[in-house]
Specification:
single chain; mainly beta; 8-stranded antiparallel barrel; 1 helix; 52% strand
Length: 141
Amino acid sequence: MRYSNMFSEKDLIGSWTLLSWQGFKNGTPAGFPMGEDAQGQIIYSAEGRMSGFLMRADFARATRGTPAQYNTSLAYGGTFRVEGDEVIHDVIYATIPHWIGTPLVRKIERKGKNILLKTAPETSNSGAVHEHLLLWQRVGG
């Protein structure tokens, strides 16, 4: 019998559009890292590759980036694998340098036809514990 909280790579293959991204600090809602209308896409391939891109909806279109713009988008990619109710993104490239070469673990939860990815808790230098919830909708589904 297959339980609803168990996933396989096949469950994720395809393209997903971001519906919402909410941050939490010490278990309390802490706002929306890139605004309530953040945009994004994550793609999982049958070959075990993944890539994701997130940005503010008001990301300025410019021929040259400014330092402030670099805080309004995020991208990374690499390979992925599923273990139970977790997807592990093994990061090969990223706009956040210290993510490169590290596994990013995300809890997966079904929300109807959508999926919710929950980041692993991270403790900041100040001792605060940060987590993020990202709700994704399958493209065309």
